[in-house]
């Protein structure tokens, strides 16, 4: 790649204009509905519409996540070593992946519900397959921040944009699905209409957004890595600790996402409040978007992620002790719960970009897709494991789909699923992150300074 592009990266001035920032928002906004729909509503759809057994669904979710643990690093390696297209190393494959994922997404939902037999088999095949097709879209997208700019403020901006797009996209999906479904004569027809619309928007936004962003940062070293190096990359301490911490945080969030709709339907008996409570989270999301860059510059990403985990723990505990206070929901969600989710989502991708630089600094080669494969796995694994936990516990607490009245055992179980399990996961994540993540604000600045000098020398 030419040296003029490299010189742009080395300057203090931002290399991002408004149109590129908007395109980055669009491509990320288009990415999030897939896993949000699957983590928040697929379990409900499979139990209450398709009629599948919760235990069978929980097993499906767990089996697929085990498969992803093997496939995601392999896909990361493949994408890092694919030949560049006219659009660069990642953008062309992002577009291809979006198209394949959209088709696969339709099959996950509509295949089991339209089939007259073999519903569980179709669910297994389509759900396992999406682990691969989603990777081809998600890993290139999650590789973009490190290659769009090497300026710290640019990366903070991109992380904020990505987190905001994901959060607002999640809110739009979670708040909008049940009201839209209710407009149709049956749940099946309503879900089918929503699924088709989500798939179409995802493909459209992914293509438009990918065409509007650029790749600028290229390796300081010509060396690439071999398949046997994957374990060294994934076992690097910053990468491993970020993986464990954010996996726990996202499983906590996914447990809540999958279970909360049951809580509103059967405990509060106010499905209308589900959408309203979700919409109230926009206040906290906006606060997180505004505050995160300021907090990062003052305290660094490590301290800020610890704060986010502590907020999440606090919110879960408050909701456990006063779970049926409906007015309190509209205070705790926007002031505690959603700022925690916002901080975690925004910080994760900036920390991931720091880890890409750490790998290059420590091991001598760049591995954007290999590191990004961990975030892709986390997103899918959190949804799958969280959904499996909820599915198994629904069966354990004797949940009856579509029943007017659930047993006292079931209602008590919904309290534990929604608030106790997330609290335990938040606490574990907080302790692991605070005591074991090594990259402080000062350490990260040192790595970037040395890499910038190496890139200048390599392209003189």
Overall description:
The protein is mainly alpha-helical and 460 residues long. It has a single domain, classed as Growth Hormone, Chain: A (Up-down Bundle). Helices cover 82% and strands 0% of the residues. It has 17 helices and no strands. α3 (33-50) runs antiparallel to α9, α3 (33-50) runs parallel beside α15 and α14 (326-363) runs antiparallel to α15. The longest helix is centred in the last third of the chain and has 38 residues, at 326-363. The two termini are 12 Å apart. Mean pLDDT is 85; it is low at 1-11.
Radius of gyration, rounded? 22 Å
Strand share of the residues?
A: under 5%
Number of domains: 1
Oligomer: single chain
Shape: globular
H-E order = HHHHHHHHHHHHHHHHH
CATH architecture grouping: Up-down Bundle
- Number of helical runs? 17
Intertermini distance:
12 Å
- The CATH superfamily is MFS general substrate transporter like domains
List the SSEs and their pairings.
Layout: H1 3-10, H2 18-31, H3 33-50, H4 54-81, H5 91-114, H6 119-142, H7 144-148, H8 152-181, H9 187-211, H10 230-235, H11 237-267, H12 271-299, H13 301-321, H14 326-363, H15 368-396, H16 408-436, H17 441-458
Helix pairs in contact: 2-8, 2-9, 3-5, 3-8, 3-9, 3-11, 3-15, 4-6, 4-15, 5-6, 5-9, 6-15, 8-12, 8-14, 11-12, 11-14, 11-15, 11-16, 12-13, 12-14, 13-14, 13-16, 14-15, 14-17, 15-16
């Amino acid at each position: 790649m030419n040296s003029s592009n490299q010189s742009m990266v080395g300057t203090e001035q931002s290399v991002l204009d408004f149109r590129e920032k908007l395109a980055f928002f669009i491509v990320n906004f288009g990415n999030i509905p897939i896993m949000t729909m699957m983590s928040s509503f697929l379990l409900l759809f499979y139990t209450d519409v398709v009629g599948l057994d919760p235990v069978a669904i929980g097993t499906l979710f767990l089996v697929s996540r085990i498969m992803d643990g093997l496939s995601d690093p392999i896909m990361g390696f493949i994408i890092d070593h694919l030949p560049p297209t006219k659009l660069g190393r990642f953008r062309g494959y992002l577009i291809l992946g979006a198209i394949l994922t959209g088709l696969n997404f339709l099959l996950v939902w509509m295949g089991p519900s339209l089939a007259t037999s073999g519903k569980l088999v179709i669910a297994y095949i389509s759900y396992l397959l999406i682990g691969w097709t989603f990777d081809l879209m998600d890993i290139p997208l999650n590789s973009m921040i490190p290659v769009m700019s090497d300026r710290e403020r640019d990366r903070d901006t991109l992380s904020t944009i990505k987190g905001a797009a994901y959060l607002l996209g999640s809110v739009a999906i979670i708040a909008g699905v049940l009201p839209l479904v209710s407009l149709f004569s049956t749940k099946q027809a309503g879900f089918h209409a929503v699924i088709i619309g989500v798939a179409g928007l995802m493909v459209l936004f992914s293509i438009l957004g990918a065409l509007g962003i650029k790749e600028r940062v290229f390796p300081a070293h010509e060396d690439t890595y071999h398949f046997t190096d994957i374990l060294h990359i994934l076992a690097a301490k910053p990468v491993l600790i970020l993986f464990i911490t954010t996996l726990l945080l996202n499983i906590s969030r996914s447990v809540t996402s999958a279970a909360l709709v049951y809580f509103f339907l059967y405990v509060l008996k106010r499905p209308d409040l589900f959408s309203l409570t979700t919409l109230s989270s926009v206040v906290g999301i906006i606060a997180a978007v505004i505050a995160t860059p300021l907090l990062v510059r003052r305290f660094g990403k490590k301290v800020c992620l610890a704060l986010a985990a502590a907020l999440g723990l606090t919110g879960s505990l408050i909701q456990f002790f006063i779970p049926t206070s409906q007015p309190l929901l509209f205070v705790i969600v926007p002031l505690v719960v959603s700022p925690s989710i916002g901080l975690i989502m925004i910080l994760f991708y900036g920390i991931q970009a720091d880890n890409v630089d750490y790998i290059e600094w420590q091991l001598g080669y760049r591995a954007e897709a290999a590191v990004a494969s961990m975030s892709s796995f986390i997103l899918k694994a959190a949804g799958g494991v969280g959904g499996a936990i909820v599915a198994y516990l629904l069966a354990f607490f004797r949940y009856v789909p579509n029943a007017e009245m659930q047993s006292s055992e079931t209602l008590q179980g919904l309290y534990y699923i929604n608030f106790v399990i997330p609290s335990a996961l938040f606490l574990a994540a907080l302790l692991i992150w605070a005591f074991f993540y090594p990259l402080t604000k000062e350490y990260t600045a040192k790595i970037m300074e040395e890499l910038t000098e190496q890139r200048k020398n390599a392209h003189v």
